[in-house]
């Protein structure tokens, strides 16, 4: 299959443009010039995101006995984030240009950038930014709670959570007491997190508002390292299942000195985005650090009691922490393809096709009556629509020629198109076959067609969209 893209930047621009024109992703506040670092998911993007989140939830919560879910509040008590170290230290080094006043993240600058104000200077003059010394910039969004909050009352301060993890740590004891789980066990959460990134960039990759899919997996200290390796493998498998192939993923074993001081092992899973190899997920062995800190700061006993061995101890934690929006972006980048097709008679043609895995595809099947002005075809097509609609997201389309309708579905990644034609109504096939009450199913990737009985259609599709 030939990709027509010349460069990666070119490919990224085409993906961004398709995402807007087909309703996957829009810039937040676009009407008013856009809110930097914030994105809205359109109709198809919303379905794609729901499918990815549901797949993650099914694999990590519903299909396991040792993991339960939670949904914590976004507004977070200042004491939680003080104990976790975020209030004191969740920052990135920032530098400013003294001339054009642009801000940069110091650790992401490869070269000194060119100064916007100095652009007009004559040839030969130094046009680079004049940067200040780096200073730490806290990434958390702070807010005040309560109508009568005193401006100087530290207890009125709350934060939009910078990660979902801390809400899990501070509820771990309540979950344990209410579920009677035994080690090892996990708590999973999908939800919004907020970071006031200095330089949001690369489309949705680095946003100020984003979603995380996190698991805190609690275990005995002696099992931590082994479980970290096991989680890494499970997480790599997950990406393959949603259409991000293993060869495009890279595992970085973060060396001593670059990991957080409490972590004995951290893996970053990176993906070959069109703008470079970048982090999708971190799998970190966090030891007893988080629960230990919350025990220390709250003064409450957060130990685990092992009824068999009669031991009391702070459980250790392995944390697979994935970015939902980065996963969606990887899925979109991986699905996008422009295929060369040569029409009958040698005429060149191409089609854009989003090759989503059926389990994440926003629309699972399109129902297409061959002609819209034949009431019997339309009636039958609506019967098929009513049959499938309670079970999956389908799309009904009776406008334009069938070939064009197929192409429109290719562009949004619908894996199956179901055509209701005259054979469905009883007309004989080309070799005299009886195709009454069957439909033509066209496969998106191969463009091959086959006939499936309407009575078999629902189980046929359900088996192929999981
Ligand atoms: P980075 O180094 O890219 O800033 P991080 O190492 O700080 O990321 P973590 O704190 O480990 O990220 O967060 C876990 C996951 O949350 C990341 O792997 C990523 O997928 C996602 N994530 C973090 N920051 C952002 C962001 N600004 N926009 C979108 N997703 C993010």
From TrEMBL:
Its EC number is 6.1.1.14. GO terms for molecular function: ATP binding; glycine-tRNA ligase activity. Gene3D superfamilies: Anticodon-binding domain (3.40.50.800), Bira Bifunctional Protein, Domain 2 (3.30.930.10). It is an enzyme of class 6 (ligase). Residues 140-358 form the Aminoacyl-transfer RNA synthetases class-II family profile domain. One of its GO terms (biological process) is glycyl-tRNA aminoacylation. Keywords: Aminoacyl-tRNA synthetase, ATP-binding, Cytoplasm, Ligase, Nucleotide-binding, Protein biosynthesis. GO terms for cellular component: cytoplasm. Belongs to the class-II aminoacyl-tRNA synthetase family. This is glycine--tRNA ligase. The lineage of its organism: Bacteria, Pseudomonadati, Verrucomicrobiota, Verrucomicrobiia, Verrucomicrobiales. The gene is glyQS.
């Amino acid at each position: 299959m030939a990709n027509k893209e010349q460069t990666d930047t070119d490919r990224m621009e085409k993906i961004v443009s398709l995402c807007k024109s087909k309703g996957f992703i829009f810039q937040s506040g676009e009407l008013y010039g856009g809110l930097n670092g914030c994105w809205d998911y359109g109709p198809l993007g919303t379905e794609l995101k729901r499918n990815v989140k549901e797949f993650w939830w099914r694999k990590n919560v519903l299909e396991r006995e040792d993991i339960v879910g939670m949904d914590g509040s976004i507004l977070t008590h200042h004491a939680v984030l003080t104990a976790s170290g975020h209030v004191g230290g969740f920052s990135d080094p920032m530098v400013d240009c003294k001339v054009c006043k642009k801000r940069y993240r110091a650790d992401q600058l490869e070269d000194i950038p060119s100064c916007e104000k100095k652009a007009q200077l004559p040839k030969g003059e130094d046009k680079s930014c004049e940067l200040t010394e780096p200073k730490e910039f806290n990434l958390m969004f702070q807010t005040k709670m309560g109508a009568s909050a005193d401006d100087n009352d530290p207890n009125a301060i709350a934060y939009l959570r910078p990660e979902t993890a801390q809400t899990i740590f501070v509820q771990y004891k309540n979950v344990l007491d209410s579920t009677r789980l035994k080690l090892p066990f996990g708590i999973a959460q999908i939800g919004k997190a907020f970071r006031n990134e200095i330089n949001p960039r690369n489309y949705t990759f680095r946003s100020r508002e984003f979603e995380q899919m996190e698991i805190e997996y609690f275990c005995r200290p002696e099992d931590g390292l082994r479980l970290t390796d096991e989680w890494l493998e499970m997480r790599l498998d997950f990406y393959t299942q949603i259409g991000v192939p293993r060869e495009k993923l890279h595992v970085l074993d973060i060396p001593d000195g670059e990991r957080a001081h409490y972590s004995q092992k951290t893996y970053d899973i990176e993906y070959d985005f069109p703008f470079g190899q970048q982090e999708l997920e971190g799998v970190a062995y966090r030891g007893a650090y988080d629960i230990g800190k919350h025990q220390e700061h709250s003064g409450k006993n957060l130990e685990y009691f092992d009824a068999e061995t009669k031991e009391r101890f702070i459980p250790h934690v392995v944390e697979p922490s994935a970015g939902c929006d980065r996963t969606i972006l990887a899925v979109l980048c991986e699905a996008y393809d422009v295929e060369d097709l040569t029409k009958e008679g040698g005429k060149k043609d191409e089609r854009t096709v989003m090759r989503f895995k059926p389990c994440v595809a926003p629309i699972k099947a399109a129902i297409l009556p061959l002609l819209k002005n034949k009431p019997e075809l339309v009636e039958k097509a609506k019967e098929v629509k009513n049959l499938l609609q309670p079970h999956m997201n389908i799309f009904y389309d009776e406008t334009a020629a069938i070939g064009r309708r197929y192409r429109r579905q290719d562009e949004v990644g619908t894996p199956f198109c179901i055509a209701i034609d005259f054979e469905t109504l009883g007309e004989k096939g080309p070799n005299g076959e009886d195709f009454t009450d069957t439909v033509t199913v066209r496969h998106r990737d191969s463009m091959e067609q086959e006939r499936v009985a309407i009575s078999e259609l629902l189980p046929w599709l359900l088996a192929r969209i999981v």
